[in-house]
Design brief:
mainly alpha
Length: about 550
């Protein structure tokens, strides 16, 4: 299988050469638009390969979602077998697809699905910009996010994140909105599917709802204007019908599987607690702090800042005559998408860089509107962005002889097994459940075993909050339901966030400790992780070994 060392010089040279071709093709009109788009997508896929083939955890969220996917393949009822906390079911079901086609659910397959979402989002945004601003402007503007997403090696933009699926759906709804704006006759099919895909977004990630609402409001405004001209309600009705179709189907499924209360408790109320006390007035400082954590996104924003300011200026300046519908709708939608993206990125109060995925495409939409009258000057933005990455790579190569942050030589393109997982494999078989108390979801992925509790990290059972008792109660109930073959107490120096064994280990929670000590035997401690094996499982294994030993001795 393909591997990459820390300095694949020829590969990087080819990548920068391809990037140069993409920039030239964006302004050279004789290059067909299809060829330009293919070159752009090829550049993204080419430069993402080092991260994709590195079959190792880049972010704890990856292991969390991959663990959910492994579990859903075995027990597909979300909120019974899996609680994604802030992550909706669609993000996790997407990761099951490679398994259906015979591939292992691992970091490589997850990043491939993320790349496909990224490619889809780019294509839909390009098509929307082409309709709204013309082909020339769309080509030049499109180059900036392509360069950014191709060359960034910040892990939050290349690992599979819970923002990639909702951003894909957002781009799809923006494209459908652009179709509605190009004709005086509103297509009922287009309005239905715009509503349908917008209705899916809360089930991908609740943080994406504000941006979904912006697109739906824009579509409602178009339908209102259309009704004023034609007195026809059909587009409005199909938009509303589309908007409720997926939620209705989802709730039928939820009630059928008896997980409505879990949906309320752990997706709605649990996420409300997670959002914390972050208020409206803290958003600007929170967003500045978030952006400052990402050098690449900071430069991406700086290269677009002048076109974006121009976009705001053109949107707000007084007009001598009455504006066309689209002259108001398009910039208003772009500005509101930016504001909604900033809100979504900061609402939780956490400065996780991958939240900035919500801002990549709204940025470029407003910038494209700002340069639509003088688009040739915008070529400076992707050029400056490419020079930023080239400069960083040159410095890194000079200091460390390193170009690639995702080194996959030495077997790193194959799924690793830690000492903990190698130890537990003696007591498990395919189809068994396992449980990790603490936060080390990578053990599920390495072992390829389903999680025996809906919460695959026990952070919400450990920390004090209004719903802690409810989380602990469900945790014990899940243990009783799945009877996992092994339980790991991973609280310790290698666990994320929860590392104090004295106050956060299993023994600090009586209900969990009682069940574990009653039904499980402590077998060993490896890498500060305590391994418990179910007593009847251990007894059966010992019974199977004894006759073989007796026969050998005889």
């Amino acid at each position: 299988m393909l591997t990459f060392d820390n300095s694949p010089t020829v590969y990087w040279f080819l990548g920068y050469s391809l990037a140069g071709l993409v920039i030239l093709a964006s302004i050279y009109k004789k290059v067909p638009v299809k060829a330009f788009v293919i070159l752009s997508i090829a550049l993204l896929a080419f430069m993402r390969m080092p991260a994709i083939v590195l079959n190792r955890e880049l972010n704890a969220d990856e292991s969390q979602m991959l663990s959910h996917a492994i579990t859903l393949h075995q027990d597909p009822v979300y909120w019974r077998s899996v609680d994604g906390t802030t992550i909706g079911p669609l993000d996790n079901y997407l990761l099951v697809i490679p398994k259906i086609f015979g591939f292992q659910i691992n970091y490589t397959s997850g990043r491939m699905m993320g790349l496909l979402c990224c490619i889809g989002a780019l294509l839909f945004i390009f098509s929307a910009m082409k309709r709204w601003f013309g082909e020339s402007t769309a080509r030049v503007a499109f180059t900036a996010p392509v360069i950014f997403l191709s060359f960034t090696q910040e892990t939050d933009f290349v690992h599979y994140s819970s923002e990639q699926m909702p951003v894909f759906l957002l781009a799809l709804t923006i494209w459908l909105l652009s179709k509605l704006t190009e004709s005086r006759l509103l297509s009922s099919a287009t309005t239905f599917f715009l509503g349908f895909f917008a209705g899916m977004m809360p089930f991908a990630k609740l943080q994406s709802v504000p941006q979904a609402m912006v697109v739906v409001i824009a579509a409602l405004w178009l339908c209102y204007q259309y009704y004023g001209r034609t007195r026809q309600l059909k587009p409005l009705l199909t938009l509303l019908l589309g908007g409720i179709t997926f939620p209705v189907l989802a709730f039928v499924w939820i009630f059928t599987n008896g997980v409505f209360q879990d949906f309320l408790d752990f997706y709605i109320f649990g996420n409300a607690i997670y959002a914390g006390e972050n208020n409206f007035f803290s958003i600007p400082s929170q967003f500045v702090s978030l952006v400052s954590n990402s050098g690449d996104f900071t430069v991406y924003s700086l290269t677009l800042i002048i076109p974006m300011i121009l976009g705001v200026f053109y949107a707000l300046r007084p007009s001598a005559g009455s504006k066309k519908i689209n002259d108001f709708l398009i910039p208003s939608t772009a500005i509101l998408l930016i504001l909604a993206g900033i809100y979504s990125s900061t609402k939780s109060g956490n400065s996780f860089i991958h939240y900035l995925n919500f801002c990549i495409y709204p940025w470029i939409l407003l910038a494209a509107y700002g340069i639509s009258k003088r688009n040739t000057l915008f070529i400076a933005a992707p050029v400056a962005l490419l020079l930023w990455f080239a400069g960083n790579d040159a410095i890194s190569y000079k200091r460390e002889h390193r170009l690639n942050a995702f080194e996959s030589v030495g077997g790193a393109n194959k799924l690793d097994k830690s000492a903990v997982v190698k130890a537990l494999e003696k007591f498990t078989k395919p189809g068994d459940y396992m449980v990790v108390w603490g936060w080390q979801c990578k053990y599920y992925v390495e072992a390829q075993l389903a999680q025996g509790t809906a919460e695959n990290h026990s952070e919400r059972s450990i920390f004090k909050h209004a719903m802690q008792d409810k989380y602990l109660s469900r945790y014990v109930s899940d243990l009783q339901r799945t009877k996992p073959a092994v339980i790991l107490d991973a609280v310790g120096k290698y666990s994320l966030w929860v590392q104090d064994k004295a106050t956060q280990g299993i023994d600090s929670f009586p209900a969990v400790a009682q069940y574990v000590h009653q039904h499980y035997t402590l077998v060993s401690t490896i890498d500060d992780v305590t391994l418990y094996v179910r007593k009847d499982k251990l007894t059966s294994l010992q019974s199977a070994v004894q006759p073989r030993l007796a026969a050998t001795n005889h």
